[in-house]
Amino acid sequence: MALLPPTSLVFTVQRHELELVVPTKPTPHEYKLLSDIDDQEGHRFQIRGLHLYMNNPSMQGKDPAKVIREALAQALVFYYPFAGRLREGPNRKLMVDCTGEGVLFIEADADVRLEEFGDVVCPPFPCMDELLYDVPGSNDVLNCPLLLIQVTRFKCGGFIFAHRFNHTMSDAVGLIQFMYAMGEMARGAPTPSIQPVWERHLLNARDPPLITCVHHEFDHETATNGTIMPTDNLIHRSFFFGPTQISALRKLVPDNLRCSTFDILSACLWLCRTKALELGPDEHVRFICIVNARFKFDPPLPLGYYGNALGNPAALTTAGKLCQNPLENAIELVKQSKAKVTEEYMKSTADLLVIRGRRNVNTVGSFLVSDLTRARFREVDFGWGKAEFGGPISGSEIISFYTPSKNKRGEDGIVVPVCLPAPVMERFIKELDRMLKVDAAAAG
Q: pTM for the complete prediction?
């Protein structure tokens, strides 16, 4: 079974006084406009993640909070917009006021060992409110710190680097680029190996804007009357998909069907989730995959670009068609959605956002997936080596993240956090279990 057992660990932390970390040198005080991809409604929220590092004897006597605080201040010299505050101009246009006020930083100590987290470290994490304190008054998109970092030391000598950042500023690739810079400076580098590039105009709408592609993701006329998932009694669970699970899924599709692990895993989750929701057969459902479009441009976006360069292409069908057809049908829909992201698609997206008021994607009947298996979260190194875990702290009722992990046997795989109402989660687990056991039943 792919389901990972949640931990029941409970602990408390002792937090030191809250700090504002500012760049170590004077930085320009200027206004910098975000792109029309950056400031869409769907990015106007705070996203939370963490990195977990085990004790490293070679770093004996080094304080991770001190090392990371100093590296942060140095990195902010190069990434000084992160030390500013967001303002909103005419037509809801967002810009960074580069005030140099700094980012929030918290140092803390926990009364447990990291080994007590269990064999497989993955969401949902215990006592997350302890590991990333929600500083009152700091959570708004506008006029608030753009980053919050908490470093919590554990009794074993390991630590957790937890973070909250304003998604309008960066996507996962951009955030990791900033964290890499912090890691390099923590290890003694005077400058980042990849220099940050702003250039947000590259993802602005054309003049005049012109929508040239079909954007099911922003279609609010379809599925407006679909079933709204209740958000009370939500359950968070994580599922591990390693060689055994992926092999079982591949045996459910024809040998001549070319598909990636992402394709087959996404199709499986979408299908099981839709069945578990028990929607009407004529209700519209969407699969939306979040695609890094940096290399879809000709020439590609410049190395060092740390803004949002994400496409959100959607596949649209009905619950009946999805659930009554074999898995290969869902796989083809997933593949078609991914293939939509081109340079023209991204330009059309920016144009649509400007024409229609920076609206959000239609989340009714939608399942979003963000593949972070190549985002290299775990490779951020502050001197203690690679992280045991790196990635978002959880999914939500409409989105799941794919992060690389290992099971307790040491096999490489993908951890997928899923968030659903309790009765829906129970049905989802049964559907997934049934799909993974089909091959075993046939063999037995």
A: 0.93
